[in-house]
Amino acid sequence: MFIQNPPEIIPGIEHHMVTGGGGARLHVVETGNPGGRPLVFLHGFSQCWLAWQPQMRSALTDDYRLVAPDLRGHGRSDKPAAGYAEGALWAEDVAAVLRELLLEQPVLIGWSYGTIVVLDYLRAFGEDSVAGIGIVAGITKLGSAEALAALTPEMLDVLPGCFASETEESVRGLSGLLELCFVRRPAPEDLYPMLGYNLTVPPPVRRALLSREVDNDDLLPMIRKPVLVVHGDEDAIVRPSVVDQHVAGIAHAQVHVMSGVGHAPFWEDAPTFERHLRAFCEGL
Predict the structure, then answer these.
(1) What would the pLDDT profile of 237-252 be if each residue is shown by its tens digit?
(2) What are the extents of the domains in the chain?
(3) Which of 50, 64, 220, 264 is spaced 20 to 30 A from 113 at the CA atom?
(4) Are 66 and 39 in contact (CB under 8 A)?
(5) Res. 197: pLDDT tops 60
(6) What is the DSSP string of the chain?
């Protein structure tokens, strides 16, 4: 279903509402070449589709159909009070986007927490309907000592503020989270809107997202479709060493550790990220 476009941040963006798992209404945007291979971008913890603005404005739009949902609890999507621990609901969210927008053989690209959502989909629906998978500064586990070990001490320090219900403490926590995403601080005209859409995620949702218990060690070796792993060598949120864990589970993964960037390589060095993504897609 199409919804009326709000004032455009990026020309040529189309907005949809899709009904996902448990009836949650999901806001989805798309742009680019309608006849190109779909690239489905799944954002991270407390973010929204706007995290992918560099790609939505890039030359990728000449050749690919770029699709970016707001995950449940985020952005302009519904924010149900419960259900965030249920992998089946996350999986159905992705399946609904693919189904309703008629996306055939897409590449699913998960940033950080978005990787968990990609794996929720693969666990529930398998990989036959996708052409490839992208893991960008990704995590594959939650709710265990091993999962925590993938996060930096700096990230663990800011998490309590991210869960806070008190406004000032929440702003401090989310500001700290954003600071950790980048090696070079974004310009204020970029950073303050980021803080704004982070704050639209209710604190109980943020808490529920990281209260899940997930371990995909059994699933990773079963992936046969091509996989692209991209990580920043100065990531201050998810340790770069987690790439070794990804490769241990997915031996055929193509790996690019980008130099001089942090947790958001697609933002800090968009041309290099897009070059890696394009080369990966051209090989499918």
Answers:
(1) 999 999 999 999 999 9
(2) 14-282
(3) 64
(4) yes
(5) yes
(6) -B----S-SSTT-EEEEEE-GGG-EEEEEEEE-TTSEEEEEE--TT--GGGGHHHHTSTHHHHEEEEEEPPTTSTTS---SS-TT-HHHHHHHHHHHHHHTT--SPEEEEETHHHHHHHHHHHHH-STT-SEEEEES---EESSHHHHHTB-HHHHHHHHHHH--SHHHHHHHHHHHHHHH-SSPPPHHHHHHHHHHHHTS-HHHHHHHTT--EE-TTTGGG--S-EEEEEETT-SSB-TTHHHHHHHH-TT-EEEEETT--S-HHHHTHHHHHHHHHHHHHT-
pLDDT of residue 11: 80
pLDDT tens-digit series, residues 207-260? 999 999 999 999 999 999 999 999 999 999 999 999 999 999 999 999 999 999
Question: Percent of the chain having pLDDT more than 70?
Answer: 97
CATH number for the domain running over 14-282:
3.40.50.1820
Q: How confident is the model at residue 8 (pLDDT cuts 50, 70, 90)?
A: low
